[in-house]
Amino acid sequence: MNRRSFLQTTAAALAISPRVSAQTIPSWPTELRELAPGVFAYTQASGPGVDNASLDVQLISLGAAHTWADVAVYLPQRRILFSGDIALYYVTPPAHNGQITTWIKAIDRVLAMDVDVIVPGHGPVGTKKELAETRAYLDLMVREARPRYEAKMSPGRAAADIDVGRFAAWTNPERTAWNMVRLYAELAVV
Known about the structure:
The protein has helices at residues 3-16, 100-111, 128-150, 155-161, 175-188, and strands at 39-43, 47-51, 56-63, 70-75, 80-84, 117-120. By secondary structure, the protein is an alpha+beta fold.
């Protein structure tokens, strides 16, 4: 399926989907009640988004970062970004099927945006400060992976050998081994 077909199919699915209003979802926070379903729109200039006349909602492709195709939802008028798993705070981030170097670029793109609040796919809401910490961890992984890869150290041994410093208190430290596997795969094709 090409991009045009995908977008047409998605637009058709949204057009026939049951409409959900903020009033039918009482657990939503009060400030989100103004988010009403809109018409799916796509323009080459702005990319995909939802036009509901009162609030601009932009879908932003962030590439293969945490997964194969990460997407964020941006509310520029509110300076809020729903980042999905691009942002993970105080937990060792897992690269899943994405690429850590692309993840860093995605974070850099978010850090350059006019955003005050970043809502991750899991965990607490944060800001650019917390996202910069996630980037710092990923950058450490990239820096530390190359010499261990070139020394033909296994990804598991490399993960155990790395001093993660200030990130040692983060939960799920076993993900460092997973991240080494992903980085070794990136280094193998360079």
